[in-house]
Design brief:
The protein is α/β, with parallel strands linked by helices and 464 residues long. The protein has 19 helices and 15 strands. The model has no long low-confidence stretch (mean pLDDT 94).
């Protein structure tokens, strides 16, 4: 089998390569990294090659800036590209904050701006994949994952697409710790959109243990910091467990104030970590000191992960795990690469698993359109994915799902067609944007800030 990674110069690529050696039943003969940033690709490619040699891997690893060469003959294609790099993310977040609106990579205006410049690129790649690897499965991790999956399934030339996100895996990790149950024994049901979802039941040996979890929510929040974001009263009122990104909706004013108090968006934090790291490991790679480069890389990414959502939830950058209760486990947690590799295992080896994916609704959630991309549990095997019916969704959740799904439809239309009015309308209906006036101002600022990456808007009528 051949695996191709789009965005191979990304910071998480070595983690994915390292993860391949924990899944020895996946018999890859070739792994190809693709990116348009040749310098960064060389750095991440050489670290990845070092890992292959270190583990005595049996597959050939190559890296290239030629997209056709990269995807040609691929069986599986993993996408995690970033148009505009981390500096583009910083602009996305700062422009939103300028208008008192949440600045976050995937949620709200920040995700919208990233989608505008990323969707056209992914649709072009989709066309090339359909020509060079028509039988390949495209596993999209590119953010904002919900918008990407919607765009690729609605407008993409290549139809074998699965949207993936590891947020659900993080929830499951926490619940496995709390219940001391291995991943393979626990069924954590889920419904919603990407970064906008809820857990309505948690099954272990045929018994729904969610009532027990809700009754002991304080204990759960001591084991997993992400549940500390939410007050127990809110959880009891919902009767469900939230995706961590719902913090930005249920506590939007606090999130904005906390980010302003920290004087730094998450994008700025990432730039301050990534840029020095790239410089250090570039020098080490050129000197052939590969194990030192790998060690520095691991330590920096661990530090990056340990501060995730800290400033947004507290106003300070700190280690979010420092107050977590230690739990002794006899099993390993699923990492970043786990979901992608589990999908590949299910399809390639016909190992049937239930995995939470971003796929077309087709009646899975009764109150949404057939072609709306949703995030729901799916049975996955050699024939692909099969969404499991959710049925009626509580009004409490629908009050967010409906406007955000409307926003997603309009945002995709704006990105694909270069439609200014659709873009303003998308921001106007988003629950985190306070007014049409703010929406239009942000749209104008994003078009100016990212004009080199938004050719679809050039020469268009941009009045509303």
């Amino acid at each position: 089998m051949k695996l191709t990674i789009l965005g191979g110069a990304g910071m998480r690529t070595p983690l994915l390569i390292e993860g391949l050696f924990n899944h020895t039943d996946l018999a890859f003969k070739e792994v190809t990294l693709f990116d348009v940033d040749e310098e960064r690709l060389s750095i991440m490619g050489n670290i990845s090659r070092h890992l292959v040699e270190k583990h005595q891997g049996t597959f050939k690893l190559s890296f290239t800036t030629d997209i056709r060469k990269a995807v040609q003959g691929a069986d599986f294609i993993f996408s995690a590209i970033r148009v505009g790099q981390e500096e583009g993310r910083v602009l996305d977040e700062q422009i939103a904050l300028k208008y008192g609106v949440l600045g976050q990579e995937t949620t709200g205006p920040g995700g919208f701006a990233m989608g505008l410049r990323t969707i056209p690129v992914m649709l072009e790649y989709s066309k090339i994949i359909s020509e060079e690897a028509p039988d390949a499965w495209l596993l999209n991790f590119t953010n904002p994952a919900g918008l990407m999956a919607q765009a690729l399934t609605t407008y993409g030339a290549h139809k074998k697409v699965i949207g993936i996100c590891d947020a659900h895996a993080g929830i499951k990790n926490s619940l496995c710790k709390f219940l001391k149950v291995p991943h393979t024994d626990l069924q954590v049901n889920y419904f919603g959109l990407n970064h906008l979802g809820w857990v309505p039941s948690v099954y272990d040996k045929g018994v729904d243990r969610l009532p027990e979890i809700l009754d002991n929510y304080d204990h759960l929040s001591r084991i997993s910091h992400t549940f500390r974001f939410f007050e127990p009263a809110l959880i009891q009122n919902m009767g469900m467990l939230p995706n961590e990104y719902l913090y930005y909706f249920y506590y939007s004013d606090q999130a904005v104030n906390n980010i302003k108090q920290s004087n730094q968006t998450r994008g700025q934090q990432i730039v301050q970590l990534n840029r020095p790291l790239l410089q250090r490991i570039s020098e080490l790679v050129h000197q052939g000191r590969m194990e030192e480069a790998w060690s520095d890389y691991q330590q920096t990414l661990d530090a990056r992960g340990s501060t995730y959502m800290s400033s947004e939830t507290t106003g300070q950058v700190h280690d979010v795990h420092e107050q977590e209760e230690t739990v002794e486990l006899s099993f390993e947690e699923e990492g970043y690469e786990g979901l992608a590799l589990n999908i590949i295992r299910s399809i390639a080896n016909n190992k049937q698993q239930v995995l939470t994916l971003n796929v077309p609704n087709n009646g899975t959630i009764a109150q949404l359109h057939k072609d709306d991309v949703v995030e729901v549990p799916c049975l996955v095997n050699k024939n692909g994915y099969f969404p499991l019916s959710i049925g009626e969704v509580p009004d409490f959740a629908l009050s967010l799902i409906h406007p955000v799904k409307t926003y997603e439809r309009l945002a995709v239309e704006s990105a694909v067609k270069g439609d200014y009015q659709a873009g303003v309308n998308a921001l106007t209906v988003h629950p985190l944007v306070p007014s049409f006036t703010s929406a239009k101002a942000m749209m104008d600022d994003y078009l100016e800030a990212h004009k080199e990456h938004l050719p679809q808007f050039r020469g268009k009528n941009i009045t509303v």
